[in-house]
Write a structure and sequence with these properties.
Number of helices of chain A: 8
Low-confidence stretches of chain A: none
Number of domains of chain B: 1
Order of helices and strands of chain A: HHHHHHHH
Structural class of chain B: alpha/beta
CATH superfamily of chain A: MetI-like
Strand order of the largest sheet of chain B: 6-7-8-3-9-10
CATH architecture of chain B: 3-Layer(aba) Sandwich
Number of strands of chain B: 10
Mean pLDDT of chain A: 95
Distance between the termini of chain A: 43 Å
Distance between the termini of chain B: 31 Å
Order of helices and strands of chain B: EEEHEEHEHHHEHEHEEHH
Number of domains of chain A: 1
Strand content of chain A: under 5%
Mean pLDDT of chain B: 93
Shape of chain A: flat
Largest sheet of chain A: none
CATH topology of chain A: MetI-like fold
Structural class of chain A: mainly alpha
Oligomer: heterodimer
CATH class of chain B: Alpha Beta
CATH superfamily of chain B: P-loop containing nucleotide triphosphate hydrolases
Largest interface: A-B, 22 and 31 residues
Chain lengths: ~230, ~250
């Protein structure tokens, strides 16, 4: 047994470093950017100025449609449409890029609601205090609201990131040789499905445990102003 | 002087302020009194655009805002430059230290240097007896300390008027006294203030002028002495209604 583990580990870890982890990190970064933009578009009330009001409402409609679309369809189906479907209308994407696009859009849709709820959790009192000091909406967001919202959003965003790491196994279905796909290939040769898939599970668990530790560290960092927050 | 004219405000069809016109003289302390839900906080917040009335004007000698028309960013900025609000629950920014709570607005909004803003903040903290707490976070301090810091935060913007919305209602009597002493001092220094309060003793002590509001209507607007010495029947009822002491009759 040890022989099988030792011989297959390098290949699996290689696939993890080459595909699983880059896919998760890159997709999460893009997903987060998308999520913050989407959340702000939905959160900030349109200005009274008509020249700005209608473009903003149009953006908001797009944001609502995007979140609806990606939360209402399965991730696997989204990946299939992007990789296998789009070529029919002339859009042919390399597998890795197709996966990044699919994972980013999917993560962004869920995380945008996490960020929006964190923004909503900062009391109106904080906005009043900022406005009486003549902060603009933007200054209020940057100095007061976002720093408080980050603390609230961290645990659910960590959920999203950890979920994403595991969901990258779906990339195997669009020809990417990520770690789970590699474990399937090895299994096909050595007929040890229990061992190989358990090994894959263990590797996912190790990465996700590291992320949980990172979450704990970031929570401490962002909670230093809360009573008992450093404990 | 702040002149509020014909202020009308409704919430969900219910009239909260009914055609209120009041002048708030500068260099003086005006106290707004009235039962809970009378509209006094709404009136105070109208002066700072934290509440947007449907109609009416708020004017200073050099600026006027008409609430029935769209208000430009420049006008809203200039109006808010004139005043700073102190809140019932102080509303300090929990993510910033005491020093940052006071300096962030001067640095960000007034573009003052960090150094000057910190010097000013330290001086203000000293005046309210809180030197040495610069690096603490609000959650580490008592309500009375936080409210004194929020007064520093308002003063650091050098507003013409400080607006105080029930500044001591959330404090126990000991902490309340700490805050009231600071306000008394500001009053003596000639700082223009408008205070919504339920503390009659304090209102009587510091105010030059009383505005009494009930159900969105202005029932009294004038000298503090007259308010307490020659009250109308409604004011008598209000004053005795908020006192445990049978002897309130003595103020009639």
């Amino acid at each position: 047994m040890w022989h099988i583990i030792v011989s297959s580990l390098p290949e699996m870890i290689g696939a993890m470093l080459q595909f699983t982890i880059p896919l998760a990190i890159i997709s999460f970064i893009f997903g987060l950017i998308l999520a913050v933009l989407t959340a702000l578009i939905k959160f900030i009330e349109p200005s009274e100025n008509k020249a700005l009001r209608y473009p903003w409402l149009a953006l908001r409609a797009i944001a609502n449609f995007y979140v609806w679309l990606f939360r209402s369809t399965p991730l696997l189906v989204q990946l299939f449409i992007i990789f296998f479907g789009l070529p029919s209308i002339g859009i042919q994407l390399p597998a890795f890029l197709a996966a990044v696009i699919g994972f980013s859009l999917n993560t962004g849709a869920y995380a945008s609601e996490t960020i929006r709820s964190a923004l909503l959790s900062v009391p109106q009192d904080q906005w009043d205090a900022a406005y009486t000091l003549n902060f603009t909406t933007r200054q209020t967001l940057m100095k007061v609201v976002l720093p408080q919202a980050v603390r609230i959003a961290l645990p659910p965003l960590s959920n999203s990131f950890i979920g994403l790491v595991k969901d990258t196994s779906l990339a195997s279905s669009i020809t990417i040789l990520e770690m789970f796909q590699v474990s399937q290939q090895i299994t096909a040769k050595n007929y040890q499905p229990l061992l190989m898939y358990s090994l894959a599970a263990l590797l996912y668990a190790i990465v996700c445990s590291l992320l949980s530790w990172l979450q704990h560290y970031l929570e401490r960092r962002t909670s230093k102003y809360v009573k008992g927050g450093q404990n | 002087m702040i002149s509020a004219k014909h202020i009308n405000k409704q919430y969900d069809g219910k009239t909260v302020l009914n055609d209120i016109s009041v002048d708030f003289p500068d260099g003086k302390t005006t106290v707004i009194l009235g039962p809970s839900g009378s509209g006094k906080s709404t009136l105070l917040r109208s002066l700072d655009m934290l509440v947007r009335p449907e109609s009416g004007t708020v004017s200073f000698p050099d600026i006027e805002v008409d609430y029935s028309k769209p208000i430009s960013k420049k006008d809203s900025f200039n109006l808010r430059r004139k005043t700073s609000m102190v809140f019932q629950n102080w509303n300090l920014f929990p993510n910033l230290t005491v020093l940052e709570n006071i300096t962030t607005a001067p640095i960000t909004v007034l573009k003052r240097s960090k150094n000057d803003s910190e010097l000013l903040a330290k001086q203000l903290l000293k005046e309210v007896g809180l030197e040495g707490l610069e690096d603490r976070y609000p959650s580490q301090l008592s309500g009375g300390q936080q409210q004194r810091i929020s007064i520093c935060r308002a003063l650091a913007m050098h507003p013409e008027y400080i607006l105080l919305d029930e500044p001591t209602s959330a404090l126990d009597p000991e902490l309340e006294t700490q805050v009231l002493r600071i306000l008394e001092k500001l009053c003596e220094q000639g700082q223009s203030m408008i205070i919504v309060t339920h503390n009659m003793e304090f209102a009587r002590l510091v105010s030059d002028k009383i505005v009494f509001i009930e159900d969105g209507n202005k029932l009294y607007d004038g000298d503090t002495k007259d308010f307490f010495n020659h009250p109308t029947q409604r004011i008598k009822d209000f004053l005795s209604g908020i006192s445990l002491d049978e002897e309130t009759d003595s103020i009639k």
